[in-house]
Each structure stands twice: as structure tokens, then as C-alpha cells.
Amino acid sequence: MGERVELARYTVYRGPRIIYGQRIDGGVVRVTDRPLDGVGRSYLVDCGLECDGYSALKALVADYTRQARTLDEVPMAASLVRRTLAEEAA
Question: Per-domain residue ranges for the chain?
Fold first, then answer.
């Protein structure tokens, strides 16, 4: 496995979080969302993004952090219903 690279940081009511990118299995890009202090749940955000290029990775991270600010919650942890309501209100 390759080295984890910090792609972004954001803070929600539960605390600060880091989005990491990492190459695994011969080049597959995995994006994870982890608590800054290492305590708590981590989430797989995406895997296999390498085919779409760096601009797709940047867009994913920008959209993900925007959702986190809007929801004040980890986007991967937010319920579908809550996400839908927040998007409709925006």
C-alpha cells in the first residue's frame, strides 16, 4: 500500500476530520474520511477514482467538504432522508 496523503480537513459538530487519498493494490485510489484524533469511525468515501483523473478527485473532495459544511455532519454518515431534505432546502 502507498502512503496516505491528506487531501482536506473539515470540522463538524463531532470534531475535526481529515480526508485522505491512498494508492492501494497496484494503483487503485482509495479516499477515506477519518477523525483527526484517530478515535471514532472512519468511512470509505470512494475507491477506484484513478480512472477519472486528478480533476475528478479534486471535485469529489470539494463536493464532499461542501456537503459536510451544509449538513454539519460526516456526509457518509448522514441519512439519505436528511441529505435529501438539506439539498431541497438549499
Answer: 5-89
